[in-house]
């Protein structure tokens, strides 16, 4: 956040840290470092899921990974993205202007992001309901307290179970795709902000911090992709999109600075950063609480089953959720 106070000591320090050539070298290092750590983070859960597929503990392991991922995504939205969005729009260069000083736009745009995610969720769910409920022209009727289809009487329960499983898979794929959209918004902001900065004192520690940040965020997204059961080509595409977004954002930020002279402290850059950050935060908050945490803890059969096994797994998933959120929150000390 830019300071509007022009003290002598602060001015000397800012001048000493502002070095375009060294900043450019550090940005090139950041591009490769962040790309490699992003690949490691997002591919880890996917490869583990492939290795353990078909083994006894596969479903439980994927569920625990997903709960860890939910904690990471929730912390990303509330501890990293949202405070930075508020900070950008509260900067004195922005908050002294109209209309930014008269209304809390960061909160408004966060709400719009959450409502947009809900709209996408509702639209897709309605589409899946219409797509799965046709039944080839056969109608449902009550027989012995169960819903049975006219036609092949012996196979209808199996057909219904398969249909439910397919709807669950489609829901998981939708969650992964919307989640990636929110993360990509966030990654572009991180990359562009770093790319526009000319402050070597800021960039140097950010390289290490953002590398760890991408590992944990990649684990979160990779866990959801692994459970969704995409085809191999789609998995590669989604993982690659996550891995290249922040590095491409850094390159884009460097191009913007070269073309316009805007750095990361320019008021227009701060406004764009604040609005995009607020919107992506709203998406991530909704996805973490509704489509990840609530869906698994209250509607997943493995966690809602009564008995010692279900209770033990629920506790393990809760611990994974806390560890995911705590580890990502800890990174806020550096990035």
TrEMBL record:
A single GO molecular function term of this UniProt record: zinc ion transmembrane transporter activity
InterPro entries linked to this entry: ZIP (IPR003689), Zn/Fe_permease_fun/pln (IPR004698)
UniProt-listed PANTHER family: ZINC TRANSPORTER 6, CHLOROPLASTIC (PTHR11040:SF26), ZINC/IRON TRANSPORTER (PTHR11040)
Membrane topology recorded in Swiss-Prot or TrEMBL: Multi-pass membrane protein
Bilayer-crossing regions: 28-49, 61-83, 103-120, 178-197, 203-223, 235-262, 274-295, 316-334
Subcellular location: Membrane
Protein name: Zinc/iron permease fungal/plant
UniProt entry tagged with the keyword Protein transport: no
Keywords annotated in UniProt: Ion transport, Membrane, Transmembrane, Transmembrane helix, Transport
Primary localization class, coarse: membrane
Top-rank taxon, per record: Eukaryota
One GO cellular component term: plasma membrane
Pfam families (alphabetical): Zip
Stated family: Belongs to the ZIP transporter (TC 2.A.5) family.
């Amino acid at each position: 956040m830019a300071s509007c106070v022009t003290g002598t000591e602060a001015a000397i320090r800012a001048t000493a840290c502002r070095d375009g050539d060294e900043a450019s070298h550090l940005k090139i290092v950041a591009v490769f470092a962040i790309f490699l750590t992003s690949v490691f983070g997002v591919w880890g859960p996917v490869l583990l899921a492939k290795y353990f597929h078909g083994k006894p503990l596969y479903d439980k392991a994927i569920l625990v990974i997903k709960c860890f991922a939910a904690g990471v995504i929730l912390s990303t939205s509330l501890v990293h993205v949202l405070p930075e969005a508020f900070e950008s729009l509260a900067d004195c260069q922005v908050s002294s202007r109209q209309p930014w000083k008269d209304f809390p736009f960061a909160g408004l745009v966060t709400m719009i992001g959450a409502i947009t995610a809900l709209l996408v969720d509702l639209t897709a769910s309605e589409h899946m309901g219409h797509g799965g409920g046709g039944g080839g022209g056969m109608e449902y009727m009550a027989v012995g307290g169960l819903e049975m289809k006219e036609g092949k009487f012996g196979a209808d329960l199996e057909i219904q179970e398969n249909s439910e499983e397919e709807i669950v898979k489609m829901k998981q794929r939708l969650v992964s795709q919307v989640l990636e959209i929110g993360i990509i918004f966030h990654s572009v902001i991180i990359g562009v902000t770093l790319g526009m900065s000319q402050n070597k004192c800021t960039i140097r520690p950010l390289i290490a911090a953002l590398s760890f940040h991408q590992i944990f965020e990649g684990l979160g997204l990779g866990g959801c992709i692994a459970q969704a059961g995409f085809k191999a080509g789609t998995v590669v595409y989604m993982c690659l999109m996550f891995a290249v977004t922040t590095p491409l954002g850094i390159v884009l930020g460097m191009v913007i600075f070269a073309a316009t002279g805007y750095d990361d402290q320019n008021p227009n850059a701060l406004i764009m950063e604040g609005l995009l950050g607020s919107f992506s935060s709203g998406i991530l908050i909704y996805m973490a609480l509704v489509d990840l945490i609530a869906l698994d803890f209250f509607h997943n059969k493995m966690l809602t089953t009564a008995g010692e096994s279900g209770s033990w797994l629920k506790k393990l998933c809760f611990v994974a959720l806390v560890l995911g959120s705590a580890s990502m929150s800890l990174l806020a000390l550096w990035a």
